[in-house]
Write a sequence for this structure.
């Protein structure tokens, strides 16, 4: 169900790092006082910060007059919005029907094992976040995953892990 | 050589399969040797199982090459492009000789997909060269009235391709009849059904067809603003839509007094979805555009009377709009000659799962499921036994093998307990567990339920709990009946399509595969050998090398054995997690 009870700690302040709220000003200028602006504003904010930190909610609310309550309601309803920082690379493993039939579970299991994390978590080095997503529309390439903008298809557990390890190697250089 | 056209299929699926590298390779060779042939990025022809695809059109005809990698691209460049010697063994489709893949094309009739994989989706001129925008221009030039446009759509018998199957002409008529200073056209591109991707393909391969369809609808009902609500998961579709919109505005096809017609103002913008399946439901979709949580509301009032911002609104799906220009241009009769009595025209299906030729097929309504799977789709992967096909995604149902002669039209499919839905066809073989499939769909709908209606919110949760129990070998007598009871309650007491159809996968699998449920519950066995917890893991004596990997990784230490000696799994303490099976490098763990 999309109605979730979330404890207040989940809306984290962004690790004490200062959030450059000034980055939001062009977004606010673009959408202020436009009807139906709430979701585009949050999407734009997330594009800037990678997630929506607590102070960003408050700043947008102050600047646009949008109700903090409504914003929070929307942010927790749609799966796109994140209230926690995410890794540099988000691994989205497709669990659509076609991928499920072609053993998508094995892909997730292998990645969980290789990265030593659970579904939805981020590695301690902040490099990867592992996510399960519904259909990405590449059913004929099942099982598939997306990392960044790259789609990887016809995977096996091994291939998926290798893809991730390659990214890991590149990052270390 | 100026006559040679080289097209590389570059929709998401093609790119995922490696089309970018192939394109770059050909492009670099072209530049290196300074050759004058035309190199074009096109969309998806639907032959996903042969991606990446390269088509070469020369004086002799058209040759579609399949499964092309960089090495093969070089070969094609040298032989075909430079020396006009086609490489027959790579050709998957041509008008010159027969290929193994011929049966995939026979029986297809392309209307909605006619330009997909044929034109450059980022070039409006390409679309216009294929009679693009001719339909809307015809309406304006011949002064066809709004009523007549609507009548043509009514006569064509076109029904909503997003799942509901409601008459498109009727929808338009209602919206037309409601007078208002402002009306909206919405294109529902929130293709959420896992296993369906025709809308993505159309948006990525032929975005102008959707824009033209929307413009015709706007003219017919008198709307001045259009919105395409597209899934954020389709980034390429959004990019190509925005390119198409920009090009249309430049040509005066969108904006004020469009196509030179005084007083015909219509513009379109893209609204990105934010990830909620329920937003495919029209009232939830509008709530989402208005910036709210995507929760459906009660109908009536229907959107045609009071929709977006309480104004008359017409909502159609991508594929529906893509059919409109063809119908207007060629007349209703050219469309309704295909199909059955109540389901006219063609329908696009996404063939996926355990099928040999996965991809998009567009067929006339009324052919059989069997023909789609075996004639077009080439049958089941690895020649396993065909068991069932899931039609309509999480709202649909499983149709068993013995009903494969069911015709694909709205009414015949509904009679089986499944729905036509958006046209996702997931094929399953003997290794797919039907109880697990039901659990999978319930897991999806349970997560996606918006939580507004109690029966959907809590009922799906209870059903999921029961299904999980059954697949884990904890099923009890009475579980099947409890599932059925809950299903009917949820169907009867939910506001929107999500809840009303969520139990379908469970009901159809119980109806057609009750014995599998019973095997799980009574015998604690999974006939498809799919449910992990119901399997027994044993070590195969001849294959075990005594490497100790299984024992080291076993989370409950139930595997014993010395180094270089046979290991044994203690069945009493085994939790059936499957780690030993995946860890063993010698395939020495047996599932039974």
């Amino acid at each position: 169900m999309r109605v979730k009870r979330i404890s207040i700690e989940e809306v984290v302040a962004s690790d004490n790092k200062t959030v450059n709220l000034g980055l939001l000003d062009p977004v606010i200028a673009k959408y202020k006082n436009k009807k139906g602006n709430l979701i585009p504003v949050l999407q734009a904010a997330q594009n800037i910060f990678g997630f929506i930190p607590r102070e960003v909610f408050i700043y947008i609310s102050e600047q646009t007059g949008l109700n903090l309550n409504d914003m929070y309601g929307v942010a927790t309803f749609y799966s796109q919005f994140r209230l926690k920082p995410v890794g540099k690379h988000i691994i989205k493993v497709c669990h659509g029907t076609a991928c499920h039939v072609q053993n998508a579970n094995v892909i997730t299991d292998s990645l969980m094992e290789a990265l030593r994390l659970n579904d939805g978590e981020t590695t301690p080095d902040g490099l990867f976040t592992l996510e399960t997503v519904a259909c990405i529309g590449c059913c004929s390439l099942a099982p598939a995953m997306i990392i960044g903008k790259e789609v990887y298809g016809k995977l096996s557990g091994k291939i998926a892990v290798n893809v991730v390890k390659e990214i890991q190697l590149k990052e270390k250089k | 050589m100026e006559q040679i056209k080289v097209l590389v299929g570059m929709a998401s699926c093609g790119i995922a399969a490696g089309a970018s590298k192939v394109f770059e390779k050909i492009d670099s060779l072209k530049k290196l040797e300074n050759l004058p042939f035309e190199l074009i990025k096109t969309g998806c022809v639907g032959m996903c199982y042969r991606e990446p695809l390269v088509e070469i059109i020369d004086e002799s005809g058209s040759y579609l090459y399949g499964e092309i990698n960089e090495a093969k691209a070089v070969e094609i460049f040298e032989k075909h492009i430079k020396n006009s010697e086609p490489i027959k063994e790579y050709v998957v489709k041509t008008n010159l000789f027969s290929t193994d893949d011929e049966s995939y094309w026979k029986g297809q009739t392309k209307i909605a997909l006619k330009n997909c994989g044929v034109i450059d989706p980022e070039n409006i001129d390409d679309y216009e060269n294929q009679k693009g925008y001719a339909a809307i221009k015809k309406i304006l030039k011949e002064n066809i009235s709004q009523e007549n446009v609507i009548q043509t759509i009514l006569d064509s018998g076109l029904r909503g391709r997003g799942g509901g199957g409601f008459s498109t002409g009727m929808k338009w008529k209602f919206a037309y009849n409601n007078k208002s200073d402002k009306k909206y056209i919405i294109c529902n591109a929130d293709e959420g059904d896992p296993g369906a991707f025709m809308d993505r393909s159309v948006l990525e391969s032929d975005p102008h067809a959707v824009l033209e369809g929307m413009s015709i609808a706007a003219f017919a009902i008198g709307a001045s603003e259009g919105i395409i609500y597209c899934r954020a998961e389709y980034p390429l579709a959004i990019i190509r839509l925005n390119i198409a919109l920009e090009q249309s505005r430049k040509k005066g096809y969108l904006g004020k007094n469009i196509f030179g017609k005084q007083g015909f103002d219509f513009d379109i913008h893209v609204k990105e979805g934010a990830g909620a399946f329920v937003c495919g439901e029209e009232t939830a979709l509008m709530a989402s555009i208005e910036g709210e949580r995507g929760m459906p509301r009660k109908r009536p009032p229907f959107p045609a009377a009071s929709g977006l911002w309480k104004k008359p609104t017409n909502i159609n799906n991508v594929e529906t709009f893509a059919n409109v220009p063809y119908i207007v241009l060629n007349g209703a009769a050219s469309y309704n000659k295909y199909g059955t009595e109540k389901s006219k025209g063609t329908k696009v299906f996404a063939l996926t799962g355990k099928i040999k030729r996965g991809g998009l097929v567009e067929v006339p309504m009324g052919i059989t499921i069997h023909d789609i799977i075996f004639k077009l789709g080439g049958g089941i992967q690895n020649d396993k036994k065909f068991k069932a096909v899931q039609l309509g995604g999480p709202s649909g149902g499983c149709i068993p093998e013995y009903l494969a002669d069911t015709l694909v039209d709205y009414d015949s499919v509904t009679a089986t307990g499944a729905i036509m839905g958006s046209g996702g066809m997931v094929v399953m073989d003997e290794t797919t567990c039907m109880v697990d499939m039901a659990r999978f769909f319930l897991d999806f709908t349970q997560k996606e339920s918006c939580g507004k209606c109690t029966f959907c919110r809590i009922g799906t949760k209870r059903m999921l709990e029961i299904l999980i129990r059954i697949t884990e070998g904890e099923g009890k007598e009475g579980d099947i009946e409890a599932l059925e009871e809950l299903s009917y309650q949820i169907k009867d007491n939910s506001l929107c399509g999500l809840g009303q159809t969520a139990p379908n996968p469970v009901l159809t699998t119980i109806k057609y595969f009750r014995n599998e449920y019973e095997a799980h519950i009574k015998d604690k066995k999974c006939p498809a050998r799919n449910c992990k917890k119901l399997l027994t893991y044993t070590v195969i004596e001849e294959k075990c090398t005594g490497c100790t990997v299984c024992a080291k990784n076993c989370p409950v230490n139930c595997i014993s054995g010395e180094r270089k000696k046979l290991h044994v799994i203690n069945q009493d303490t085994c939790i059936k997690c499957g780690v030993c099976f995946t860890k063993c490098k010698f395939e020495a763990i047996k599932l039974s």
